[in-house]
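Example record

Each entry pairs one chain with its bound ligand, zinc ion.
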Amino acid sequence: MSQDNLIKMKCVECGEINYYSSKNKKLIKEKLEMQKHCSRCKKHTKHKEA
Ligand SMILES: [Zn+2]
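Structure tokens for the complex follow.
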């Protein structure tokens, strides 16, 4: 798998990068968004592609 497809998922509330994901940037133009547990906020928050 190419490093080019590696993306960071960042908590929108505290800015912590909690997850790494991957996508093909050539195929998917939209920024990813997902509801994930943030260890700093200690709750589920929205995470956006950083
Ligand atoms: Zn957070």
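The chain is about 0% helix and 50% strand.
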